[in-house]
Amino acid sequence: MDLIERTREFVAETLANEPSTHDISHIERVEGLCLEIHEMEGGDPQVLQLAALLHDIGIVKEHQEGGNHAEYGAEIAREFLSSEGADSNVINHVTSCIRTHRFSRGMKAETIEACILQDADRLDALGAVGIFRSLVSMGALRALKQTIGTVKETSMNAYTEDPFDGFYDYMQRKPFKIMDRLNTETAKVIAEQRLRIMHLYLEELEKETGQER
């Protein structure tokens, strides 16, 4: 089994009980998007795959302790890749990508690989899958607050008394701002179609609920 597949196995095991939407299905969609963007934009495919597979590996610790899963993830990724005997330059590059991937932190990507990872992760918050993930995530965050008291400070719209209010607020704060924060032209083309789906969904939701925004 090569390093990519050993990493995939490690991530799948670590995130097996992840309660929100940073699970292995999200991880592998981001991996696929990274490789799709790579075909047009370039970059090191090994670094991209490793960074994509490991970018949310710190999310379980964030749920348990608060803090920033990107920072946790970079540390965990470094430990894992070092134990696997990966090249030090690859390790440094991968952990740098992970550290800067997170949307809410607004960090600047320093390499084409980091730019692509940011874009791929953001694209998975758009379109039909983006709507699905946002609703599942809001439910999971509300449950975590009720059961163990964990509150995610960067996702306060998940805790509104009226979930519809929280969902509309989330859409304005994240998905509809993503286009302006994408790095590559390839990602922008993908985002355009996915955003059309989200706008159509919101229009229908407003009609059915009678809650015009």
Give structural notes:
The protein has eleven helices and no strands. With 213 residues, the protein is an all-alpha fold. The protein is globular. The chain has one domain: Orthogonal Bundle (Hypothetical protein af1432), CATH 1.10.3210. Helix content is 69%, strand content 0%.
Structural class: mainly alpha
Task: Enter the CATH topology name.
Answer: Hypothetical protein af1432
Oligomer: single chain
Major β-sheet, in short? none
Spatial gap, N to C terminus: 52 Å
- Tally of helical segments: 11
**Which segments are poorly predicted (pLDDT under 50) over 5 or more consecutive residues?**
none
Considering DSSP H and I runs of 4 or more, what fraction of the residues is helical? 55-70%
String of helices and strands: HHHHHHHHHHH
Radius of gyration over C-alpha positions, nearest whole angstrom = 17 Å
What is the CATH architecture descriptor? Orthogonal Bundle
CATH class: Mainly Alpha
Overall, the morphology is globular
β-strand number? 0
Number of domains: 1
| Strand percent estimate | under 5%
* Mean pLDDT over the full residue set: 88
